[in-house]
Amino acid sequence: MTHCSDEELLLEYYGETSRHSAHRRTCTECDARFQELRATLDTVSKTVTLEAPERGEHYGLEVWQAIRHRLPARERTWHSLLTPQWGLAAAAVLLVVGFTAGRLWTGNAVPEPQSDVAVTVPSADEDARRRAMLLTVSDHFDRSDRVLAEIMNAPEPDALSAQQQWAGDLVAASRLYRRNAIAINEPAVAAVLEELERVLLDIVHQPPGATAADLEEIRRRIDSAALLFKVRVMSNELQYRLEQPAPVRPTTTSTIG
Amino acid sequence: MSTDPPSKQAMEAGDVAAVLARASGGDGEAFSLLVNSHARMAFRLAYRLTGDERDAEDVVQESFIRAYRQINRFEARSNFATWLHRIVVNCAMDSLRARHTRRAERMGEPVEDIPDAAVSAEPSPERLAMSTEIRRRVDASMDTLTPRERIAFALRHYEGRSIDEIGRTLGVQQSAAKHAIFRAVKKIRASLEPLRRTT
After folding, report:
1. Rounded to whole angstroms, how far apart are CA atoms B35 and A41?
2. How far is B32 from chain A, CA to nearest CA, in Å?
3. Chain-chain contact of A48 with B163 (C-beta, under 8 angstroms)
4. For testing the chain A interface, which of B57, B73, B175, B185 should be mutated: the one with the most A CBs within 10 Å?
5. Which of A81-90, A92-101, A123-132 has the lowest mean pLDDT?
6. Quick count: other Cβ atoms within 10 Å of Cβ A93?
7. How far apart are the C-alpha atoms of A256 and A254, rounded to whole Å?
8. Mean pLDDT in chain A?
9. What is the pTM of this model?
10. Do A9 and B185 contact (CB within 8 A), yes or no?
11. Surface of B (4-63) touching A: CB under 8 A
12. Among residues A25, A30, A136, A208, which is most buried (max CB within 10 A)?
């Protein structure tokens, strides 16, 4: 009679196919070895769980902040251009090209005076204004973060009405900051502010006596836009830029990248 | 119930393919969403494989950097989490190899000649709780496993992966994966043998 090898017993313990399962069940000796193996491995499972220490809700953000400056720069490929923002940018370029072509096509032979300024260097005043503006927006993102986090973690729907007052204050500020961000050529900041504004408005417009379903719907909207994450990344990004000694230059593409 | 942050659920329900297409086009914002939704999963796995919090943190970061570099190789029909799982395993393997080498250098032993069970044969006299002693011994024996044995054992025993899957993840034949698990279990059993004799 051929008894089961240790390997076969182990395969059986892990539920992998073993040709000798039938033999083990009828053989006292093999079954005793199997029970002993099982007892040992079950004990290992119970005493050494290898359960990872819990990571907080900001863990994804922490990892992103730790690696983002270490990521290699990559060229954007054609399909990444198919986003609404890039579509708008492409339309603007086409508009300028069309306008210039139109001017040339009409045969305007009179040469236009050329500008001597090729690169605009921000003046000290300009830089100070930009810094002040970005500092305010960063603070605005932090306050919005608290309101959104309260809603995401609220145990009861009552929390929604408790946050409505705060959200109302933030909406007006958000709108103003978005316009300023566009004016100082910060489209990425403006884009996050726009998304934030939309969700804040949803919160403000909730009727009194919100239900658990209303709260869940608001959470779903915050979540589907990854808004909390974007607000935190943008806030950190602004703080990082403000800490740099050099003039704070505008970011023309998404700074979450 | 899932303990993942809500963003993970939203990503799964939403169009992950679109986010991946943007990420593979060099869109950092899209990639940051992938990091956000998969970081906890990556950490849990990295911790199980390395058994060390700091090493697990490093493995997570290295895995996402590697994923970003290789994202053009990701096939759209595949599952991102599965693809990332494989990258985390490989990074954990590198981390364990580095740890193994450092230890061998400290001990002045050749890397591949670590003894099967470098734990004392006798249980400590002050043993008050059996589980503490078992844990100590299993931990010690886990440290004697080669990186491949440790990873194969963790994937089989703690992650419930099949031997076939483990072989594919490690890029080795199924038989090699199987033997790595056998050797790991043999070492762990050997480390617990003295306790079994005394009980």
Report:
1. 34
2. 6
3. no
4. B185
5. A81-90
6. 10
7. 5
8. 77
9. 0.61
10. no
11. 5-7, 9-10, 13-14, 21-22, 24-33, 35-40, 43-44, 46-48, 51, 53, 56, 60-61
12. A30
Find, among B67, B19, B18, the residue nearest to B39 by Cα.
Answer: B67
CB spacing of A50 vs B47 below 8 angstroms: yes
Q: How many residues does chain B have?
A: 199
| Predicted confidence (pLDDT) per residue in B157-194, tens digit | 999 999 999 999 999 999 999 999 999 999 999 988 87
Nearest to A63 among B10, B60, B192 (CB): B60
Burial group, residue A86, by CB count within 10 angstroms (0-12, 13-18, 19+): middle
The CA distances from residue A123 to A96, A115, B163, in Å, are 27, 18, 65
CA-to-CA dists, residue A157 to A161, A212, A214, angstroms: 8, 5, 8
For A93-104, how does the pLDDT look when each residue is reduced to its tens digit (9 = 90+)? 444 454 455 544
Name the DSSP letter for residue A118. Answer: -
CA dihedral A193, A199, A205, A206 (to 10 degrees): -150
Per-residue pLDDT at B113 exceeds 60: no
- Which strand (E) or helix (H) includes residue B95? helix B80-107
Predicted local distance difference test score (pLDDT) of residue B129: 60
DSSP codes of every residue in B137-180:
HHHHHHHHS-HHHHHHHIIIIIS---HHHHHHHHTS-HHHHHHH
In this model, does residue A124 exceed pLDDT 80? no
pLDDT of B111 above 60: no
**Would an 8 Å CB–CB cutoff place B176 in contact with chain A?**
no
Cα A16 versus chain centre, distance:
41
